[in-house]
Amino acid sequence: MIKVIPFLLLYCILSSGLLANSYNCSKKNHAHNSSQKSAAPVQHYLDVLHYELNLDFTERQQSKISGNARLTARVKENRSEIRLDLLGLNVDSILFNGNTANFIHNSDSLLIDLNTTVNSSDTFEIQVFYQGTPQQDASGWGGFYFSGNYSYNLGVGFEADPHNYGRVWYPCVDNFTDRATYDFHIKTDTFSKAICNGLLINTTNNGDGTQNWHWQLNQSIPTYLVSVAVADYEFVEYQHNGLQGNIPVLLGARQADTSNLKQSFRHLPDAIDAFEEMLGPYLWDRVGFVLVPFNSGAMEHATNIAYPRATANGTLQYETLMNHEFVHHWWGNLVTCETAEDMWINEGWASYMPILFDEYFYGKQRYLNSHREKHREVLQWSHIRDDGYKAISGISHEYTYGSHVYDKGADVAHTLRAYLKEDYFPCLKDLMEQKAFQNLNSGEFRDILSQCSGRNLDDFFDNWVFNPGFPHFSIDSFRANEESGSYSVEIALRQKTKAAPALFENVPVEILIGNSDEEEIFEVNMQGSCGTFTTSVDFNPEFVIVDPWQKIADATTDYWISIDSSGTYDLNDALAKIKVIQNGTVSSKILVTKNWIAPDPWADAPQNLHLSLEGYWSVQGFLDENLEANLELIYDGSSSGNNAHIDTELLSNSEDSLILLYRKNARFNWAVADTFKLLTGNINDKKGRVRLPELKTGEYTLAIYDAQKSDSTVQFLTTPCQTLTIIGDTQLEQEKKSEKDFNVYPNPNKGKFQIDLSDLDLNEVEKISVYNLSGNLIWQKLNPDYLEEVSSKKWYSAFYMVNVHLKDNSTLSKKIFVH
After folding, report:
1. With the CA atoms of 283, 288, 292 and 295 taken in that order, what torsion angle do they form, in degrees rounded to the nearest 10?
2. Is residue 49 within 8 Å of residue 181, measured between CB atoms?
3. pLDDT tens-digit map of 104-140
4. Is 34 strand, coil or helix?
5. What's the gap between Cα 466 and its chain centre?
6. Which site in 13, 553, 589, 615 is 20 to 30 Å from 707, CA atoms measured?
7. How many distinct helices (H) and strands (E) make up the chain?
8. Alpha-carbon distance 3 to 440, whole Å?
9. What are the φ/ψ torsions at residue 787 (nearest 5 degrees)?
């Protein structure tokens, strides 16, 4: 029998009360606990049509409930006994169609002897009378809570297997695929209100200090979405005009919290409009949230979302959380992933839709910023928090609530938009209509979208959903030829991969061609390691960049910016900062990119020099010649903080001997940057900044001299593209570069050494500079002779870089050791 693990909404919040993404619920906080595993298999033969829960909460101060559950059900095959799930409560008696039935209740399995055989065509009733204290999940997340004036449930358990947790408070078929409608009859004292799923039908005062609350849900849901909350609630109610008429909105909070609740939820009507426009009509009885004193997350119970009281604080600080929970009424509650292994269908999309709300309500720039922040989280943290790179489909039980499901799932939802283009929202609506109140797996998802759009999405799902990793796209080279007043532009686009088993195929990639005055975007279909594409423009292009609007969630985070004023440009998610001292005559336009992938290796690198395997930066575009600006690049090899784990492999020891390398583009070899300054408060804390006094286009990467560090290489699936050799730098120029060299001897040296330039043309040499590995200038000679002698008597014992600066702006470098 197939084991089906139901899905959970989890949107975790840091214990401090600050909103965070699901990855903050780290593995260690919800590690698998075998004592919580359900030994009972998922049932496919029993179909519950309706639950009527009659429960007494008047003893909730003693953490007790009592009552009965009446189930209307049928079987899919002839049966004489059935099993229900009920964990930890005490069963007093059971009726089958009004007659007493024998039962065995072991752990969380309630086996009922029907004393007859029911046929698949029969509908019958089971009534279970029970009482006791419903339990919480061992992790602390999920189950039932009695806290002060509040009693409420969260419909899942972190450590439970399966994760759905209806069984802790009523007998049910607690699996992912069985859906039913509900009636709730909840008895409370007269000072309290009960709020459940659906609509409030009536309230009855019993005349004995108690009252009954009757709620009814007319749409079918699985058990993990069922909800009850009891406290001295007040109702905040209004009607919202939706696509299919008025939608009742009911929010529950204690009287002291209602003012803050209204302010924090003031954009809920906008969210209803936004998601109806994107996904189709809201099909539920009402919109509902209820505040509970739980600070570690929220739960998207259908029409009655359990929402942390602390986050309804009168501000919009947690608006993303509100939107995440609410949009589950499409992704999760309406169309539900078939198994927990496909949780990204629920949680990835619910994590992405608030970013789309940002675009809908706040504009495109807010959308780009929100997506970039989410994408940076994926590249920096997902493999750390989930113990490696994983496919988002087929996720294991241990990582159901992990960063790949939530954050990379959102990345994939974002990238799908670039594939489907104008069909994106229409096909999402079509999916919602086809699969409303049903389950969905990734294969069905692919097929429905392919049929709707007329696009074959096999490659998209194979690359982004069914396999781990990321592509990486970069301009290898380009050239432009003038033809009758226009320019024919030939572009070589290179693909590398990060943690992926193969190159990505049929990826729609936008390419921007521009100069100081004009820009034009066109799209190419990229497959393989190198693609050559030709187009024409009406201007002479000065630069070509990839995906300026971040439509593909590849292994980069970047900022496409115009520099048109002095000041500081914080490019946080690219781990960079630009300080403009004096603006240019015209605006500069650049793409600053943090590439989360190893740079190309340094051909014939000095011994014991190790390039970063974890990333490099690129600056592309147009810089006005009158612009005065510097560039700072952030590094961090520590294990804590916002920038942690970025340079862990490179900085396995200290930052001593850390240097910055530069090259003009992919056609040049690396060389030590002309001038840079290492800014660090502590040379051993593995974090700091590198400052370059001049912002210029090109590529930058970190490297370190470390004789103790073992040599590491990165095996790319591709090598630099070879198709375009005459681009900016001709093939002849490249060959000349390879012939240029100089010598330094003796090396190592003590007291003095010689710099021999006899293999160079002195007319091409501008100066010689010697830097220590912190980027400080130690010695320099302008217009040098063929042989220069340098005294090193007073230098510290260390490695130094000798740079010969040529007048074509290239640099030749060699390392020496002074002892």
Report:
1. 60
2. yes
3. 999 889 999 999 999 998 999 999 999 999 999 999 9
4. helix
5. 16
6. 615
7. 12, 46
8. 16
9. -130, 120
